[in-house]
Amino acid sequence: MSESHVKEKSPAESHAEVIVRMFPSDANPAGNVFGGEILKHIDMVAGIVAQRHAQSNAVTVCMDSVNFLKPVFVGNVLSLNARINYVHNSSMEIEVSAEAEDIVTGIRTTTGTAFVTFVALDKNGKPLHVPKLSLKTDEDRVKFEEGKIRMEERLKNRKK
Ligand SMILES: CC(C)(COP(=O)(O)OP(=O)(O)OC[C@H]1O[C@@H](n2cnc3c(N)ncnc32)[C@H](O)[C@@H]1OP(=O)(O)O)[C@@H](O)C(=O)NCCC(=O)NCCS
């Protein structure tokens, strides 16, 4: 496996937030936004974090613990916040939280959460070592340990 040209990076260096408006084409006739539409944005923002961390191409290999906690409606402003929790060799766990804002009332609600695993790839499409995570805060350290446990669980259940 090729080495990364970057030694280490903190989670703060790759953090990303994406903000999108929900339109009628994103929803069912009752105005509820499709889960798949939200998943697309989750994958997209997690991919930005993974590629910022790896500074290479990176692809999704697993999405898990996807929870749609509250509905998202047409007209809502959806904010997706993503951070990297854990890295192994080429794999990275990214945590995403989605928040919907009713732009008239200003009320913001956490509507969804997910973990997305990405693998960094080199120019030949082979897994590439990613920079180590430089853990700067207590939150970084806790999330790293929790991410390690989840990754071990994921690999136990991995389909080959
Ligand atoms: C990414 C890909 C090249 C990896 O190939 P592979 O033969 O599985 O490679 P490996 O077995 O060496 O695994 C590489 C890394 O991926 C991790 N991985 C692979 N599948 C995983 C899964 N389901 N969950 C978590 N990690 C996984 C491995 O643990 C390993 O991590 P490490 O390097 O940190 O130890 C291959 O799985 C692939 O191309 N998948 C399709 C990705 C894609 O196109 N996604 C978009 C949606 S279609």
Tell me the name of the CATH class: Alpha Beta
Enumerate the distinct ligands: coenzyme A
* Count of DSSP strands: 7
Q: Strand count, sense and closure of the main sheet?
A: 5 strands, antiparallel
Stretches with pLDDT under 50, minimum 5 residues: none
What percentage of residues falls in helices of 4 or more residues?
25-40%
Which geometry do the CA atoms define? Answer: elongated
The tally of structural domains comes to: 1
Structural class from helices and strands?
A: alpha+beta
Cα distance, first to last residue? 19 Å
**Rg, alpha carbons:** 17 Å
Strands in their spatial order, largest beta sheet:
2-4-5-6-3
Find the CATH superfamily.
Hotdog Thioesterase
Helix/strand order, N-terminal first: EHEHEEEEEH
Q: What would the average pLDDT be, to the nearest integer?
A: 96
**Can you tell me the CATH topology?**
Thiol Ester Dehydrase, Chain A
Structure description:
With 160 residues, the protein is an alpha+beta fold. 27% of the residues lie in helices and 36% in strands. It has one domain: Hotdog Thioesterase (Thiol Ester Dehydrase, Chain A, Roll), CATH 3.10.129.10. The model has no long low-confidence stretch (mean pLDDT 96). The protein binds coenzyme A. Coenzyme A binds at residues 59-62, 88-91, 117, 119, 127, 154-155, 158.
Q: Concise description?
A:
The chain has one domain (8-156): Roll (Thiol Ester Dehydrase, Chain A). The chain is built from three helices and seven strands. The protein has helices at residues 11-14, 35-54, 138-156; strands spanning 8-9, 16-21, 57-68, 77-87, 91-101, 108-121, 132-133.
